Amino acid sequence: MAEMAELTVSLSFLLGIVVFSEVARRTVLYLVPNRNWTIYALELIYSFQLCACTHELKLLAEVGGLEPRIALTLTFLISVVHGLSFRGAICNPIGALERVYLGTLTRRGALTRISCQLIAAVAARRVMPHAWALALSDLHEQHSLTGFKCTNSPVNAPLLQAAAVELGCAFVMHTAVFNVEKVEEKYRVPAISAVITTLVYTGGHVTGAVFNPALAFSIQFPCPGNSFAEYSFVYWIGPILGSSCCFPTHLTGMTGSLLLFDKVIPAISGKSTIPKHLNSNGLETKKMK
How far is CA 243 from the centre of its chain? Predict the structure, then answer.
């Protein structure tokens, strides 16, 4: 189990990442407000926040031996923080693809956002070792012995089973997002965070339960044990198939959830179930301040 001092350092790291991201957001909005490309800068900032925080959480769980109940509590809390801070950012390539389908984002805009997400994923992967190199805790110093690299594959099942786990997680997650408008607004972020935590608890031992291609590219792809193509199948193809049934059948995941809530249920009830005013986190889109 991670010592209390190590946990305190990691919590300070997480807080520092969030504060840095918020300062960067405010700086961008102050220096270049109302520019067309400002939203892409925010996409970079918050995708970096997501990936960097997850790197530290993964280190705590895998190297620090953090107790599962504490790890899940931290997962819930940091998910709440992300949900409250991601103003206008998508931070997930699947969310960008969904917006294209729903007609709220152009293909060019989606491609640019996905590019920002992947750039931020690589940046977080490169920056975190420099932060760990400060050796502010025994955990970080211990991690330096491996060159700040993971030593085992995060895929702990046959590839088809692992991809099915990511597919299922993505389907459940996006189904929850489509239905979160039924929850009172002040409870929406905790509700989505609870779903994320439940999915991590359920599928984390198999794949890490990432269900975000950009995040997986940052934290899982550098790990040994599987090829790039195998990781792509599990962490990219799986979630896309799992969050998509409104696209042609070869994109079943985004398809499954979207088809169910955009085609099947409306055909029965005569009402659209996908709220156009919600962002990819299931929260009402607010003006940037």
Answer: 14
The answer to whether 210 and 51 are in contact (CB under 8 A) is: no
What residues pair up with 278 in beta bridges, in sequence order?
A: 284
Tokens 């997986």 correspond to: 216
Q: How far apart are the first and last CA of the chain?
A: 41
Q: Cβ atoms within 10 A of the Cβ of 103, count?
A: 8
Q: How many residues does the chain have?
A: 289
Token match 């400060």: residue? Answer: 134
pTM here is: 0.83
Yes or no: say if 53 and 47 are a contact pair by the CB < 8 Å rule: no
Convert the pLDDT of each residue in 5-56 to its tens digit: 788 889 999 999 999 999 999 999 888 877 788 899 999 999 999 999 999 9
Quote the CA–CA distance of 256 and 170 in Å, as a whole number.
10
CA distance linking residue 83 with residue 201, whole number of Å = 19
